[in-house]
């Protein structure tokens, strides 16, 4: 019991329990209260902050993560109490940005396992392996294959930090029972050369499985989960784009699952886009007239585009039903090759409906592959939204061009994670776009003091504001599937 973080109370076991559980003599005699333990932890956290002053940010954050992780491994009751009470301070440690650093260094930081690991070598065994998990019941699973961890790329087995962090947020924000959550890593290999050569690397040292071989592993895993816990909700997280979409289509009508990067992000972004209309003092129905530039046409960018387009098409009030047809395109989408138009070679079918046609109705005179700054200068968008994974791509020139936006309060959403991958900082936005700009980022930044002494808000646009509600709602309602309508409702309400 003393070694089981689910049940351990450390020095808080009262004498009666020590007797009953055969713990007498295994602990120092003084019985501490939960409140004393709590205070002791917070004090040691503060002294760590004090003692690491002046050290590089990464050293301080990792030290903070270590002390929290040790508590997690020792005493979950105390850990979650501390986390819930201090979520604003601790979210950046257990979640983005520090969790990114933890994943990058996971093999070296590893002390105790958490969650389950299914690897390509476990083919044929998963149905029995799933019974190795000690809890009778599991409600929430977050699974990754480590192929696109935040904006950090393929981190293989080290990506397990992401499901762990997401499930901590489920417990802290949605009150999910921590004994009923399960972080899972599907290790199908890695294409990260550095990891393959790293002697400490803890995952399979082989290239990623592809095609049918890959899908066979994920299929077997999903069947195993469903066999043991038919009602568990499975959140897919940080899968590279092709598998994010493929697995979503493959499983969404068979299992209670969703893809957080595609759907959760879309819900949060839509909430932000609607907020940006309100910030302009315009009625929500004017959403259909917003000009939106999206930088990044990956799993997250396309998820946002689809949901925002759908919201425009069904926005009541401005038009007769059906008036805004499929051709109503308020989006300009760029990827690593610049603006996407219909003349793009090998145009991805998922982006085709957002590609600019540059027919007579489109007057900005842009060309295939146009650069971001050209697009912003010509379109004068209301919103500039980044899901590119490229830090600093909203540079001074781009932000100065946003000053000419047709919106009185241009919105800039730098949604890529972790902090180093944010497309810009709030300081840059308020300096170059103007103090009336609306800013949000995927990873947290501090608010900025503006010239008139007012606060420039560094809002956060991260799917963590949405997925806990989706999971909790699905769980409480006993939903068999997670529909787009649920995500729309989450975004709009
Ligand atoms: N804030 C959130 O809640 C949230 C949610 C999901 C993803 N993200 C972040 O979004 C980023 C992208 O995630 P994803 O799953 O879509 O990745 P992805 O790899 O599927 O897509 C990345 C896209 O960015 C494009 N891109 C790359 N370089 C570019 C450049 N120089 N200019 C313009 N476009 C460029 C690529 O062509 C691709 O279309 C990651 O950093 C991730 O952390 C944030
Ligand atoms: O993990 C996050 O912080 C958000 C998002 O799911 C991402 O992949 O960046
Ligand atoms: Mg993610």
Automatic annotation (TrEMBL):
Q: How cofactor binds (record note)?
A: Divalent metal cations. Prefers magnesium or manganese.
Q: Which residues form the active site?
A: 95 (proton donor), 166 (proton acceptor)
A single Gene Ontology molecular function, please? Answer: malate dehydrogenase (decarboxylating) (NAD+) activity
GO BP: any one term: malate metabolic process
An example GO CC term for this entry is: mitochondrion
| Record keywords | Metal-binding, Oxidoreductase
- Residue sites binding a divalent metal cation per the record: 237-238, 261
Q: Which cofactor does it need?
A: Mg(2+); Mn(2+)
SMART domains found in the cross-reference section: malic, Malic_M
The residues that hold (S)-malate are 148, 417, 462
The Malic enzyme N-terminal domain, residue ranges:
72-252
Which ranges carry the Malic enzyme NAD-binding domain?
Answer: 262-493
List the InterPro entries hit by this protein, alphabetically. Aminoacid_DH-like_N_sf, Malic_enzyme_CS, Malic_N_dom, Malic_N_dom_sf, Malic_NAD-bd, Malic_OxRdtase, NAD(P)-bd_dom_sf
- Asked whether the UniProt record includes Metal-binding among its keywords, one would answer yes
Q: Which family does it belong to?
A: Belongs to the malic enzymes family.
* Annotated PANTHER family: MALIC ENZYME-RELATED, NAD-DEPENDENT MALIC ENZYME 2, MITOCHONDRIAL
Cross-referenced NCBIfam families: PRK13529.1 (NF010052)
Indicate what this protein is called per its UniProt record. Malic enzyme
Question: Organism, per UniProt?
Answer: Aegilops tauschii subsp. strangulata (Goatgrass)
């Amino acid at each position: 019991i003393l070694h089981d973080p689910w049940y351990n109370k450390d020095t808080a076991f009262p004498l009666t329990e020590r007797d009953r559980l055969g713990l007498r003599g295994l602990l120092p005699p003084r019985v501490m209260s939960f409140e004393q333990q709590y205070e002791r932890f917070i004090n040691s956290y503060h002294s760590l902050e004090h003692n690491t002053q002046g050290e590089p940010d990464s050293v301080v954050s990792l030290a903070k993560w270590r002390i929290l992780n040790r508590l997690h491994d020792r005493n979950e009751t105390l850990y979650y109490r501390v986390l819930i009470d201090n979520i604003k301070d601790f979210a950046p440690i257990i979640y983005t940005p520090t969790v990114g650093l933890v994943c990058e260094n996971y093999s070296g930081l590893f002390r105790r396992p958490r969650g389950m690991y299914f690897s390509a070598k476990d083919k044929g065994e998963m149905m029995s392996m799933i019974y190795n998990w000690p809890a009778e019941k599991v409600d929430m699973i977050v699974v990754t294959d480590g192929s696109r961890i935040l904006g950090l790329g393929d981190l293989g087995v080290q990506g397990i930090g992401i499901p762990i962090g997401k499930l901590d947020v489920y417990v802290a924000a949605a009150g999910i029972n921590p004994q009923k959550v399960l972080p899972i890593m599907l290790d199908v290999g890695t294409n990260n050369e550095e990891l393959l050569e790293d002697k400490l690397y803890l995952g399979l040292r082989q290239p990623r499985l592809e095609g049918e071989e890959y899908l066979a592993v994920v299929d077997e895993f999903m069947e195993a989960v469903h066999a043991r816990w038919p009602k568990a909700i499975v959140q897919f997280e940080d899968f590279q784009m092709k598998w994010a979409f493929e697995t979503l289509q493959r499983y969404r009508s068979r299992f209670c699952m969703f893809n957080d990067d595609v759907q959760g992000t879309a819900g949060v972004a839509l909430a932000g886009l609607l907020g940006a209309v309100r910030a302009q003092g315009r009625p929500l129905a004017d959403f259909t007239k917003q000009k939106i530039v999206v930088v990044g046409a990956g799993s997250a960018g396309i998820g946002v585009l689809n949901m925002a387009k759908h919201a425009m098409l069904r926005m009541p009030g401005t038009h007769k039903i059906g008036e805004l047809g499929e051709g109503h395109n308020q989006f300009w989408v760029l990827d690593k090759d610049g603006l996407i138009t219909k003349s793009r070679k090998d145009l991805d079918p998922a982006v085709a409906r957002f590609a600019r046609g540059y027919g007579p109705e489109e007057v900005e005179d842009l060309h295939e592959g146009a650069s971001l700054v050209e697009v912003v200068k010509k379109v004068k968008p209301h919103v500039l939204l980044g899901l590119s994974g490229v830090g600093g791509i909203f540079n001074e020139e781009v932000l100065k061009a946003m000053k000419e936006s047709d919106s009185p309060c241009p919105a800039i959403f730098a949604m890529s994670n972790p902090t180093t991958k944010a497309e810009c900082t709030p300081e840059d936005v308020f300096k170059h776009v103007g103090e009336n700009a609306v800013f949000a980022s995927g990873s947290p930044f501090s608010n900025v003091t503006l010239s008139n002494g007012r606060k420039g808000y560094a809002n956060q646009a991260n799917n963590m504001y949405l997925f806990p509600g989706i999971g909790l709602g699905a769980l409480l309602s006993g939903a068999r599937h997670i529909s787009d309508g649920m995500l729309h409702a989450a975004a709009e309400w």
